[in-house]
Amino acid sequence: MEFNKLGYSILADFYSDIERDQIVQRLETNQLDNDSIQNNKDLYAIRQLLKNVPELTKILFNENLLHLLNTLFDSEYFLTKAIYFDKPPKSNWFVPYHQDLSISVDTKVDIENYINWTFKKGQYGVQPPTKILEDTITVRIHLDDTNENNGALKVIPKSHLKGIIRHDSEHWIIENEHACNVKKGGVMLMKPLILHASNKSTNTKGRRVIHLEFNKNELNNSLNWLEKLLVD
Fold this sequence. Notes:
The chain has 6 helices and 14 strands. It has helices spanning 2-6, 17-29, 49-52, 56-60, 63-72, 130-134, and strands at residues 8-11, 45-46, 78-86, 95-98, 103-105, 115-120, 123-127, 137-142, 153-155, 178-179, 187-190, 196-198, 208-215, 229-230. The strands form 3 sheets. Strands 1, 2, 3, 8, 11, 13 and 14 form a 7-stranded antiparallel sheet that branches.
């Protein structure tokens, strides 16, 4: 399968224009608490998205997404993280190459193979055993046309096959870069261990993305996923 081989895949026309408009409307009209959002004009990120905007759940988990997840996972799976990102023209930033190594959990516990603890925006993050990261599948839902001019992700195909890569490792090789251009309503699938980055926007168009992570593994007995949500 292309996704498992390359570490990413792009699927067009995943959400209809009506579904996409419904998602945008709910994001714009919901009044969230100050920990998640400054105000609707400066909406850069909403963490724990489906907790803050639960009415999005039914729209996001449409027939296409459920079919895709049932195809990708060979056993029961669940949502582990949901974030809304906006890269508006007035808040533009560059993200260097990296791997996504942190998961969100409900508490901090001193246990083996869980390292690099953080506490940001009121929630704990930790780097879990590599197996957990290898089994994670990220689905990025694009609400705007995204290309090299407004911060599309760049990836290094197949880099996820090398496991966790240190910056000073011989495997940290930035070559054969691919820009993941996605039309609005499309999705990008991604393995979190793939090397990825994004440039600053060079036009006036925003880049709004809903980032969903899924897994099939429970954590240590003393630790739970912060946002675990079973998918019907």
